[in-house]
Structures are given as C-alpha cells and as structure tokens.
C-alpha cells in the first residue's frame, strides 16, 4: 500500500482529519510523525534556518522523523490562502521549497497549492492532480475530498466545545478525552493553533491553566459570525486569516462579561504576531490581558510564574469587586426584597 | 512567640525572614544562592533560626523560582509566585502604592496596583539589559565594586548618554566615551540612565507609572539608579526598609493570612528535619519517551521527597500520598 506521510506540525492542527480521510479513501496508508517532543524540537532547530519562527523550525523536525519511517510520499501542502481576500502567513508559501533546500534525500513530495483567495477553482484542480497519483477515477477523488470535508466538520465541532486541536484529533481518532468541569475562572486563550495547541511548543499552556482552575475558551469556541463581526470593528481589514480570527475572537471575548481575562501566546520572531498581540492588548476594552512570547529558549518555570500570577490577580480582583458590590445593609440569604 | 517564615529562593539570592503575628520583621537574612539552592536553603535557614530557640513556627510561605524546592525541604503552607508575593509586601508598607518597580539580579518586573491588589504586571523575558546584572557587568569593567557604584554615580553633574540597548553595545560605547575623556562618574550615571531606559522600553513598555511608586529588589540600594529613575520619570521613588527581601516578606504575610483563616496546623516540618537530614539532589534522563526529560530528584537521606522536570508527571506520580500532599501548591 502506498504510504503517505503527514508531518504533525503547522496546519496539521487545522486540517489533519481532512487530509487523512482524503488519502485513506484513495487507498493510501497515512502515517504521521509523533506529537512534538523534545527530539522533534532539537532535530528541527539543527537544520532549520535561523530566521524561521519557532513552529516552522519544529516542522523541520517532524519531517525528519517522518522520513525515518520511510514513506512513499511526503505531503507538504503549500498554503497560500484558505478563504477569499485573506492569506496565510507568507512563510507557508515558500515552505516546501525551504524544506527541499535544507533536507536532501526526501521521498517524492506531494506539493499541493491551496489558494482560495479568489475562488476555489484552482483548489479543485489541485485535488484532482493529487488524487491522480492514486487513481484515475475522478468520481472517487471528488468523493474522497467531500468525505474529508465532512470529517473536518466533525472535528471542528469537537473544537467548538473547548477541546484544543491536539485533543480533538485524539478524540477524532477514537480516544477518550474529558474536559474538566470544576473551574472558577474563564479565560480566553488565543494564539496560532499550531503553537498554542501543540503541548510541547506551548509548554502545555492550556493544560496548566486548566490545572489552575480555569475554563479555557478558544478561537474555535467562538462562532464564525461572532469573530467576523468583532474583527470588522477594526479600522482596516486584517488580511491574515489566523490574525483576523485571533483579533476577532479576542475582541468578541473582551466584550463578554463571563470572561475574566485574555491570554495571548505569541512566537518570538513572528511578524504577524507582533502586531496582532498589540492590537488585542490595546483594544481589549480593559479586559485583563496577559501576553506571552515564547521561543526555543523559554523555560517552563517563567511561564508558570506568569500564569499563576495572572490567575491570582483575577481572583483577588474579583473578590474585591464582589465585596464592593455588596449592599451596605447586608445581603439576604436567599430571595430578594420582594420574595422569600 | 509565634512566628511566620517567608523564604524567597531566586537564582541569584536567597532570602529568609521571620515575622511575628503583628507583621513585624524580627529577623532577615539575605545571601547569594551560588548555584546551590539546597545548600542555600539549609544554611540560610540555620542562620535564621540561630538564637531563636524560643519561637513557634505557625506558618511558612515560599516564593521565587526555587519555591517548590524550599517547600519540599521545609514544609510550606503557601507556595506563591514572585509577582503576588512582591505585590503583597509592597502593599503592606505602602497601602497607596500604584506602581512597583522591582529589579533583581537576573530579572525585573513592573507591577501595577489598584486598591492594594495587582492590576497588571510584566516581567522581562530574555534580555538582561534591564536587570541588575547589566550594572554588575559594567561595574566590573570599570574595576569597581557594585556596592560603591551608586555612591559614585550620584556625584555626576552631567551624565553621558550611553547607548545601552544591550550589554555588548553598552560596553563598546562606554570604552569609546572613556577614551574621549569623560569623567568616570558621568559615565556611571550614564549607565544607570541606560538601564532605566532599557527597563522602561523592555519591561514597562508603555504601562502608566502612577504615584505612589515603590522601588524594590536587590538593586534598589543603588542611589545612582534611583536618581536616574527619578530624573527620567520626574516622580519620587519610595524604597521600603527591607527592599531586598520583599518577596520573602510577601510570602510570610500570605502564610500568616492563611493560618489565621484556618484551623489546620502548619505543614512546617520542624528544625530538626532540615538541619539533621542529608539532602541530595540528583538528576537523570528519563528514557520513557522521546521527550527525554531531565528528571531531578530530591532526597533526604534515603527517602525521595520530590521529582521535577517530568512532563508527564510519571515520576511525581510514583511518590506516596503524604509526599505528594507536601508538594501541593496553595
Ligand atoms: S504567522 Fe508567525 S508563527 Fe505562523 S508561520 Fe508565520 S511567522 Fe511563523
Ligand atoms: S518523564 Fe514522562 S514525558 Fe518525560 S521522558 Fe519520561 S516518560 Fe517521557
């Protein structure tokens, strides 16, 4: 059986169920690298360009690990745009070339261009081209892609309930995961999914927050409408897809009284992040905000200190708000003045 | 007498304080960690308890990057991050505080306070140019003890502008200014101002510095730096009497508040526990998965007290219940 390797980094976190279903339906076997671990990071840093941002460096590590498994093909999509009038960070456009240049001896690469900035015609052709590697049956190809989209939809529904992409993929693959229910703080946690939801790159930021008694809301827990409506309030349209989603989700959460604070995880050396983070901080309406920037040298201890301090701050602030809102004559144990 | 202990273990200094239930400081110890926190805790603690045989320890609070280690060795009722601990201490001495500038040897922070609680904060991330080590470095290049630095710097009448974006530029610029013949005190004052600019650019980053401003941390003793801050900000800085052990004070206050609200006995393990035991920390690489975690174990004689560094908590999970209870963060 033809084996297609999908690296477990970058847009794996957004599209893995789609791609996997597509290839499996066409009769291929899909293998992927293990979730990011320290070795992935070290291998990646050793070969990637210095100027690359952290998640891109890590991606290089994933490819090396996959390569050792000896796949027949490597799937490295070239993501340019996934929606009209918006783009993915330019680093993704050249990614397959960067990889071919720094890693020789790779198996044949399936380099599929995803550019939907104008319409989806080009993508349809690309799907056909890629599908033809496995079959000439065009109907089977478009059916596999349709099936892929359905699985993607299921996967996204999981994320809407508050699972991170890593967790949602695990559930989608048949594992069991539970969300903790005991929490006294609600935080909006934002950032690019391939960093934030990667437990190694983010140093398990989401897991730590949950352990500290926080319920975590993500970009994916907001609806498309909520995000676009909030993002439209900016004076100029943000044309990076991920950036706009983050800003939109952040502004939407900033106006939600149930949310106690916002956390933004940025990557050192990321152009879009340096702007988006500022945007959110300045426009978040006085909602408590914690910005965290990470790179390969960041230590977990410093992260924990900040997260703990942030949670402490929110709890102590809330306590004071609560006390200053108490009526001076004391509260009724239950009921109000007009009822018992 | 009933007392509360506060312990702040940082990478550069380890601080210990003893406080009575009126929040009065009875004793404080400030010493260098010197890369061996276990030893620093043992000796610092011995000094703290020396001559205090009559006291009863009612609560222990730990903070700093070594807070979990200290809690393991001593038994702690409160294990708190540095931000909260510093804020609590500053608010104790200055209830009106709205800004805390804290500069230590290796890190620096700004804490914005409203109504006595933390409203916003930031810590320096990678760059040391906004911390005490920046001055340490430059002082040694000028062949001067860091303790004398501030006193010399304030003699300056006209500071020299030094490009202090980072230690490397600062050094070459400083040498250049020396060669041009500027008096050394003017250069020193210039360095203080460079540090202040670094701090404001990298740490405070546009946060509003409102009165009352408290300046604390090991570096607060440096008069040159204080003068530079006051000049650049145009505001008065208040330096608390125990400026270099504020984290420890905060931890002690939190331990006191906790003990007053509860009937439980302190988790404090007693003097003998720490003084008579042989503590050893060892590390090994776990080969359980590709993460290859560097797992650190703390032992007292033959008993393992704690594990750190295991991402999956597999090692920590192997400890018995009582040991785990001691590690709980409160
Ligand atoms: S958006 Fe930022 S983090 Fe993502 S690939 Fe581009 S530079 Fe890297
Ligand atoms: S401690 Fe856990 S995560 Fe770390 S290497 Fe061992 S098994 Fe892997």
From TrEMBL, chain A:
For this protein, the record's Gene3D superfamilies field holds:
3.40.50.11900
One of the Pfam families matching this protein, by short name: DUF2229
Q: What is the superkingdom listed in this entry's lineage?
A: Bacteria
Q: Where is the DUF2229 domain?
A: 3-216
**Protein name per Swiss-Prot or TrEMBL:** Uncharacterized
Q: Which organism is it from?
A: Syntrophomonas zehnderi OL-4
The root-end lineage is: Bacteria, Bacillati, Bacillota, Clostridia, Eubacteriales
TrEMBL record, chain B:
Q: Which GO terms describe its molecular function?
A: iron-sulfur cluster binding; metal ion binding
Question: What cofactor does this protein call for?
Answer: [4Fe-4S] cluster
Q: Where is the ATPase BadF/BadG/BcrA/BcrD type domain?
A: 5-255
Q: Which domain of life is it from?
A: Bacteria
Q: Name one Pfam family in it.
A: BcrAD_BadFG
InterPro entries per the UniProt record, alphabetical: ATPase_BadF, ATPase_NBD, CoA_E_activase_dom, Dehydratase_Activator_Redct
Record keywords, A-Z: Iron, Iron-sulfur, Metal-binding
Q: What is this protein called?
A: ATPase, BadF/BadG/BcrA/BcrD type
Q: Which organism is it from?
A: Syntrophomonas zehnderi OL-4
